[in-house]
Protein backbone atom coordinates (compact mmCIF):
# COMPACT_ATOMS: atom_id res chain seq x y z
CA UNK A 1 0.00 0.00 0.00
CA UNK A 2 1.15 3.53 -0.72
CA UNK A 3 -1.31 5.44 1.48
CA UNK A 4 1.19 8.21 2.23
CA UNK A 5 2.72 8.85 -1.18
CA UNK A 6 4.25 12.35 -1.20
CA UNK A 7 3.13 13.00 2.40
CA UNK A 8 5.37 14.24 5.19
CA UNK A 9 5.28 13.13 8.84
CA UNK A 10 6.92 14.71 11.86
CA UNK A 11 7.58 12.09 14.51
CA UNK A 12 9.02 13.26 17.82
CA UNK A 13 11.15 10.61 19.49
CA UNK A 14 11.60 8.75 16.22
CA UNK A 15 15.06 7.32 16.82
CA UNK A 16 13.78 4.25 18.61
CA UNK A 17 10.79 2.20 19.73
CA UNK A 18 7.31 3.18 18.57
CA UNK A 19 8.39 6.43 16.91
CA UNK A 20 10.96 4.63 14.80
CA UNK A 21 8.42 1.97 13.81
CA UNK A 22 5.96 4.67 12.71
CA UNK A 23 8.67 6.39 10.65
CA UNK A 24 9.60 3.10 9.02
CA UNK A 25 6.02 2.18 8.08
CA UNK A 26 5.23 5.72 6.89
CA UNK A 27 8.24 5.60 4.57
CA UNK A 28 7.37 2.06 3.43
CA UNK A 29 4.00 3.42 2.39
CA UNK A 30 5.43 6.16 0.20
CA UNK A 31 5.92 9.04 2.61
CA UNK A 32 8.83 10.97 4.04
CA UNK A 33 9.49 11.25 7.76
CA UNK A 34 11.23 13.84 9.89
CA UNK A 35 12.25 12.35 13.20
CA UNK A 36 13.51 14.02 16.36
CA UNK A 37 15.66 12.79 19.21
CA UNK A 38 17.91 14.27 21.86
CA UNK A 39 21.34 13.60 20.41
CA UNK A 40 23.12 14.02 17.09
CA UNK A 41 24.31 10.43 17.37
CA UNK A 42 20.91 8.74 17.84
CA UNK A 43 19.23 10.93 15.22
CA UNK A 44 22.00 10.39 12.66
CA UNK A 45 21.99 6.62 13.22
CA UNK A 46 18.20 6.32 12.85
CA UNK A 47 18.09 8.50 9.72
CA UNK A 48 20.83 6.39 8.17
CA UNK A 49 18.88 3.20 8.88
CA UNK A 50 15.58 4.63 7.63
CA UNK A 51 17.05 5.69 4.28
CA UNK A 52 16.83 8.67 2.00
CA UNK A 53 13.21 9.57 2.78
CA UNK A 54 14.10 10.18 6.42
CA UNK A 55 15.33 13.47 7.86
CA UNK A 56 16.45 14.26 11.36
CA UNK A 57 16.29 17.14 13.80
CA UNK A 58 18.08 17.14 17.14
CA UNK A 59 15.41 18.54 19.41
CA UNK A 60 14.69 17.95 23.07
CA UNK A 61 10.94 17.73 23.71
CA UNK A 62 11.52 19.01 27.24
CA UNK A 63 13.34 22.16 26.16
CA UNK A 64 11.29 25.26 25.27
CA UNK A 65 14.04 26.72 23.09
CA UNK A 66 14.11 23.57 20.98
CA UNK A 67 10.32 23.44 20.80
CA UNK A 68 10.10 27.07 19.68
CA UNK A 69 12.60 26.50 16.88
CA UNK A 70 10.99 23.25 15.68
CA UNK A 71 8.86 24.90 13.00
CA UNK A 72 11.86 26.63 11.41
CA UNK A 73 13.85 23.39 11.54
CA UNK A 74 11.01 21.44 9.87
CA UNK A 75 10.69 24.11 7.14
CA UNK A 76 14.22 23.25 5.99
CA UNK A 77 12.68 20.01 4.68
CA UNK A 78 9.05 20.77 3.88
CA UNK A 79 6.38 23.48 4.04
CA UNK A 80 3.60 20.98 4.77
CA UNK A 81 3.23 18.35 7.47
CA UNK A 82 0.47 15.74 7.02
CA UNK A 83 0.99 13.75 10.24
CA UNK A 84 2.38 14.79 13.60
CA UNK A 85 3.02 11.88 15.93
CA UNK A 86 3.67 13.51 19.32
CA UNK A 87 5.50 10.61 20.84
CA UNK A 88 8.82 11.60 22.44
CA UNK A 89 8.96 10.46 26.02
CA UNK A 90 10.63 8.41 28.67
CA UNK A 91 9.67 6.74 31.91
CA UNK A 92 10.85 7.45 35.41
CA UNK A 93 9.00 5.39 37.96
CA UNK A 94 9.53 6.42 41.59
CA UNK A 95 7.73 5.85 44.90
CA UNK A 96 5.84 8.98 46.02
CA UNK A 97 8.17 9.61 48.96
CA UNK A 98 11.24 9.63 46.69
CA UNK A 99 9.93 11.95 43.95
CA UNK A 100 11.85 15.23 43.88
CA UNK A 101 10.91 18.48 42.17
CA UNK A 102 13.46 18.01 39.43
CA UNK A 103 12.07 14.60 38.38
CA UNK A 104 8.54 15.98 38.57
CA UNK A 105 9.35 19.00 36.37
CA UNK A 106 11.40 17.01 33.88
CA UNK A 107 8.67 14.42 33.32
CA UNK A 108 6.04 17.11 32.88
CA UNK A 109 8.31 19.12 30.58
CA UNK A 110 8.95 16.19 28.23
CA UNK A 111 5.60 14.40 28.44
CA UNK A 112 3.19 17.37 28.70
CA UNK A 113 4.83 20.59 27.53
CA UNK A 114 6.61 18.64 24.79
CA UNK A 115 3.54 17.38 22.91
CA UNK A 116 1.60 20.59 23.59
CA UNK A 117 4.16 22.96 22.07
CA UNK A 118 5.17 20.51 19.33
CA UNK A 119 1.64 20.47 17.99
CA UNK A 120 1.14 24.21 18.61
CA UNK A 121 4.25 24.96 16.55
CA UNK A 122 3.51 22.53 13.71
CA UNK A 123 -0.21 23.22 13.17
CA UNK A 124 0.58 26.31 11.02
CA UNK A 125 2.29 23.92 8.58
CA UNK A 126 -0.75 21.62 8.40
CA UNK A 127 -3.57 21.74 5.87
CA UNK A 128 -7.11 20.41 5.95
CA UNK A 129 -6.85 16.60 5.87
CA UNK A 130 -3.83 16.57 8.18
CA UNK A 131 -3.71 14.42 11.27
CA UNK A 132 -2.31 14.69 14.79
CA UNK A 133 -1.76 11.57 16.88
CA UNK A 134 -0.79 11.84 20.55
CA UNK A 135 0.83 8.98 22.44
CA UNK A 136 -0.71 8.54 25.89
CA UNK A 137 -0.48 5.32 27.94
CA UNK A 138 -2.31 2.47 29.64
CA UNK A 139 -0.97 4.12 32.81
CA UNK A 140 -3.91 6.55 32.56
CA UNK A 141 -6.31 3.61 33.05
CA UNK A 142 -4.50 1.35 35.50
CA UNK A 143 -3.08 2.65 38.75
CA UNK A 144 0.39 1.20 39.21
CA UNK A 145 2.81 1.80 42.09
CA UNK A 146 5.61 4.29 41.28
CA UNK A 147 3.70 5.69 38.28
CA UNK A 148 2.18 8.75 40.01
CA UNK A 149 3.94 11.47 37.97
CA UNK A 150 4.14 9.55 34.69
CA UNK A 151 0.47 8.63 34.87
CA UNK A 152 -0.59 12.20 35.69
CA UNK A 153 1.47 13.51 32.79
CA UNK A 154 -0.06 11.01 30.37
CA UNK A 155 -3.53 11.91 31.64
CA UNK A 156 -2.79 15.47 30.57
CA UNK A 157 -1.92 14.16 27.11
CA UNK A 158 -5.20 12.24 27.09
CA UNK A 159 -6.94 15.54 27.75
CA UNK A 160 -5.10 17.22 24.81
CA UNK A 161 -6.62 14.62 22.47
CA UNK A 162 -10.06 16.04 23.21
CA UNK A 163 -9.27 19.75 23.58
CA UNK A 164 -7.04 19.91 20.50
CA UNK A 165 -9.71 18.06 18.50
CA UNK A 166 -12.19 20.75 19.50
CA UNK A 167 -9.94 23.60 18.40
CA UNK A 168 -8.58 22.03 15.22
CA UNK A 169 -11.92 20.89 13.79
CA UNK A 170 -12.32 24.18 11.89
CA UNK A 171 -8.97 23.67 10.19
CA UNK A 172 -9.98 20.18 9.04
CA UNK A 173 -7.21 18.57 11.10
CA UNK A 174 -8.18 15.34 12.81
CA UNK A 175 -6.76 14.78 16.30
CA UNK A 176 -6.60 11.36 17.92
CA UNK A 177 -4.46 9.35 20.28
CA UNK A 178 -3.22 5.90 21.01
CA UNK A 179 -2.92 4.39 24.46
CA UNK A 180 -0.28 1.68 24.34
CA UNK A 181 -0.07 -1.14 26.86
CA UNK A 182 3.28 -2.77 27.57
CA UNK A 183 5.35 -2.46 24.42
CA UNK A 184 8.80 -3.92 23.77
CA UNK A 185 10.93 -0.77 23.54
CA UNK A 186 13.78 0.93 25.37
CA UNK A 187 11.37 2.67 27.78
CA UNK A 188 13.01 1.10 30.86
CA UNK A 189 16.55 2.02 29.78
CA UNK A 190 16.65 5.47 31.37
CA UNK A 191 15.03 4.42 34.62
CA UNK A 192 18.23 3.64 36.50
CA UNK A 193 17.54 -0.13 36.39
CA UNK A 194 20.29 -2.43 35.14
CA UNK A 195 19.70 -5.00 32.38
CA UNK A 196 18.90 -7.78 34.84
CA UNK A 197 16.45 -5.61 36.79
CA UNK A 198 14.74 -4.61 33.54
CA UNK A 199 14.43 -8.25 32.51
CA UNK A 200 12.96 -9.11 35.94
CA UNK A 201 10.48 -6.22 35.71
CA UNK A 202 9.38 -7.37 32.24
CA UNK A 203 9.03 -10.99 33.40
CA UNK A 204 6.81 -9.78 36.26
CA UNK A 205 4.64 -7.76 33.88
CA UNK A 206 4.11 -10.45 31.22
CA UNK A 207 1.75 -12.69 33.27
CA UNK A 208 -0.50 -9.64 33.83
CA UNK A 209 -0.97 -9.08 30.08
CA UNK A 210 -3.98 -10.95 28.63
CA UNK A 211 -1.93 -12.05 25.58
CA UNK A 212 1.06 -13.00 27.83
CA UNK A 213 3.47 -10.99 25.72
CA UNK A 214 4.59 -7.40 25.23
CA UNK A 215 3.39 -5.60 22.13
CA UNK A 216 5.72 -4.94 19.21
CA UNK A 217 6.39 -1.32 18.16
CA UNK A 218 5.08 -2.29 14.71
CA UNK A 219 1.68 -3.14 16.28
CA UNK A 220 1.50 0.46 17.50
CA UNK A 221 2.67 1.83 14.15
CA UNK A 222 -0.17 0.05 12.31
CA UNK A 223 -2.70 1.92 14.45
CA UNK A 224 -0.99 5.31 14.18
CA UNK A 225 -0.91 4.96 10.40
CA UNK A 226 -4.54 3.89 10.34
CA UNK A 227 -5.47 7.02 12.31
CA UNK A 228 -3.45 9.14 9.90
CA UNK A 229 -5.00 7.53 6.83
CA UNK A 230 -8.14 8.23 4.81
CA UNK A 231 -9.64 5.06 6.27
CA UNK A 232 -9.97 6.92 9.59
CA UNK A 233 -11.65 9.94 7.99
CA UNK A 234 -14.55 9.91 10.50
CA UNK A 235 -12.42 9.36 13.63
CA UNK A 236 -11.73 12.54 15.60
CA UNK A 237 -11.04 13.17 19.29
CA UNK A 238 -10.68 9.45 19.93
CA UNK A 239 -8.14 7.46 21.86
CA UNK A 240 -7.51 3.90 20.72
CA UNK A 241 -6.21 1.46 23.29
CA UNK A 242 -3.53 -0.83 21.90
CA UNK A 243 -2.94 -2.84 25.05
CA UNK A 244 -4.02 -6.48 24.51
CA UNK A 245 -7.04 -5.71 26.68
CA UNK A 246 -5.05 -5.21 29.88
CA UNK A 247 -7.04 -2.09 30.79
CA UNK A 248 -10.37 -3.94 30.78
CA UNK A 249 -9.63 -7.62 31.49
CA UNK A 250 -8.91 -8.59 35.09
N1 LIG B 1 6.96 1.14 25.97
C1 LIG B 1 5.82 1.17 26.60
O1 LIG B 1 5.40 0.16 27.19
C2 LIG B 1 4.97 2.43 26.57
C3 LIG B 1 3.62 2.32 26.95
C4 LIG B 1 2.80 3.44 26.86
C5 LIG B 1 3.33 4.65 26.40
N2 LIG B 1 4.65 4.72 26.06
C6 LIG B 1 5.11 6.01 25.52
O2 LIG B 1 5.55 5.82 24.20
C7 LIG B 1 6.43 6.88 23.81
C8 LIG B 1 7.61 6.28 23.08
O3 LIG B 1 8.39 5.51 23.96
P1 LIG B 1 8.96 4.07 23.59
O4 LIG B 1 8.30 3.10 24.48
O5 LIG B 1 8.95 3.86 22.12
O6 LIG B 1 10.43 4.21 24.19
P2 LIG B 1 11.90 4.29 23.53
O7 LIG B 1 12.18 3.08 22.72
O8 LIG B 1 12.80 4.60 24.69
O9 LIG B 1 11.81 5.55 22.56
C9 LIG B 1 11.70 6.83 23.07
C10 LIG B 1 11.97 7.83 21.96
O10 LIG B 1 11.77 9.14 22.49
C11 LIG B 1 12.95 9.88 22.33
N3 LIG B 1 13.06 10.80 23.45
C12 LIG B 1 13.10 10.53 24.78
N4 LIG B 1 13.16 11.67 25.47
C13 LIG B 1 13.16 12.68 24.56
C14 LIG B 1 13.22 14.08 24.65
N5 LIG B 1 13.31 14.72 25.84
N6 LIG B 1 13.20 14.81 23.50
C15 LIG B 1 13.13 14.19 22.29
N7 LIG B 1 13.09 12.88 22.15
C16 LIG B 1 13.10 12.12 23.27
C17 LIG B 1 14.09 8.89 22.23
O11 LIG B 1 15.10 9.43 21.41
P3 LIG B 1 16.62 9.77 21.89
O12 LIG B 1 17.01 8.70 22.86
O13 LIG B 1 17.35 9.74 20.60
O14 LIG B 1 16.53 11.12 22.48
C18 LIG B 1 13.40 7.76 21.47
O15 LIG B 1 13.40 8.02 20.09
C19 LIG B 1 6.75 7.62 25.11
O16 LIG B 1 6.00 8.81 25.15
C20 LIG B 1 6.30 6.65 26.19
O17 LIG B 1 5.97 7.33 27.37
C21 LIG B 1 5.47 3.65 26.14
From TrEMBL:
Transmembrane segments: none annotated. It comes from the Bacteria. Gene3D superfamilies: NAD(P)-binding Rossmann-like Domain. Pfam families: adh_short_C2. Belongs to the short-chain dehydrogenases/reductases (SDR) family. PANTHER family: DEHYDROGENASE/REDUCTASE (SDR FAMILY) MEMBER 4, DEHYDROGENASE_REDUCTASE 4. This is Short-chain dehydrogenase.
Amino acid sequence: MQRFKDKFALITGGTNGMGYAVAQQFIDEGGSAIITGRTEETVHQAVKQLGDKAFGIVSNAGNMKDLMSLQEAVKLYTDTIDLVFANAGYGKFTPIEDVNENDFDELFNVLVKGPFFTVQQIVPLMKSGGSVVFNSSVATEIAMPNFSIYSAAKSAVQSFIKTFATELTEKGIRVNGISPGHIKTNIFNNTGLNTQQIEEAVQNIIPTIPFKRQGEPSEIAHVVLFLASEEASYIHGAEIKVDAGISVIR
